[in-house]
Specification:
The protein has helices at about 1-20, 25-50, 110-115, 180-185, 240-245, 305-315, and strands spanning about 60, 75, 85, 90-95, 100-105, 125, 130, 135-145, 145-155, 160-165, 190-195, 205, 210-215, 220-225, 230, 245-250, 260, 260-265, 275-285, 285-295, 320-325, 330-335, 335-340, 350-355. By secondary structure, it is α+β, with helices and mostly antiparallel strands. It has a domain at about 135-355. A 7-stranded antiparallel sheet has the order 6-7-8-9-20-19-21, covered by helices on one side. Strands 10-24-11-22-23 form a 5-stranded antiparallel sheet, covered by helices on one side. The longest helix has 25 residues, at about 25-50.
Length: about 350
Amino acid sequence: MNVNREGHENEKAGRGKNTPRLLPLPWVIVLDLVLIGAGLIVFALFHHVLPRDIQTSGLALPRPTTTRVMTPAATTTTASPTPTTMAAGTTTTAAATPEPTETTIDPDSWTAKFADQFTDGDIIQTETEYRSANLAVTIQQQQRGDAVFYLADVYLSDIEQFRTAFASGVYGRGLTDDVLDIAVENAAILAMSGDYYGIRDQGIVIRNGELYRDVLFDDVLVLYYDGSMETTEARAFDMDRILTEGAWQAWSFGPMLLDQGQPMTTFNSRVDPDNPRSAIGYYEPGHYCFVLVDGRQQGYSNGMTLTELSQLFYDLGCTAAYNLDGGQSAVLTFFDQTVNQPYKGGREISDILYISDLGAN
């Protein structure tokens, strides 16, 4: 017992001898400021310099205040009072009957601009066409040389109809599924293989207005909230600019296929021989096309080179175009059917891009 007490006392005594002296208050304030400054530097590096890979959930990006959504405006007209005889010698004034309320469409909206593509409200759906008051999609099978390709022409009324989806609904490496399965799970009308972001740890990933990864890889395709679309080489890419201007989607696979609207013959890619291809073209805000080229199937379709694909988009009249994941991954779906004939039946991938009809019941 005495030994324990002595040991305890010695421990206390030892602690007393080694207890550090407190710093004067001014030095404490200075030290705090230094630590705060170091923390801000680390945050700045993390946000603007160091690569990020935000797992599972993305960082919501601010949406610009200017949008291209339909703006309804109600107007009413009131009739002038009219004298009416109710009984002999008695006169009253009839209540004014308002005319039906009229809804006008913003003349600058895509709904007005592409009115000839949309219906008055009915939905038209066939094996190769879908039209509603908000969306128009038509699909054609065409042939160019020894290549069979499918051209899907798309008109939107709202940018949020142009969407993307992850396999299993989750961002992450090693998660894959069939293009058709992902499309059906997301009620997609039209869907195509994406950029297979999950096979790499590099490449800009912005999906449905959320930033998941800002590690630069190669040519980047950006779709903005205002509907404009642009391709940029890695050396000219400016992350701060695209965030400021309102990026809605961004893909990293490539290469870009048009240079200021002109066809190209050299590309930031070594995969130039005939291949199955999936690619997207841009005409103007609200008007896009999906192109799916079948290939590696002798007697049916050999595929296209990048040069041939670039020329195709130029001939279609697109002002920008971008190559996505192809080969066995190249798949195009319409509702719950696969449109093309994928090489070896296709394969599971990590993501798709798709078109939905937000206004449909």
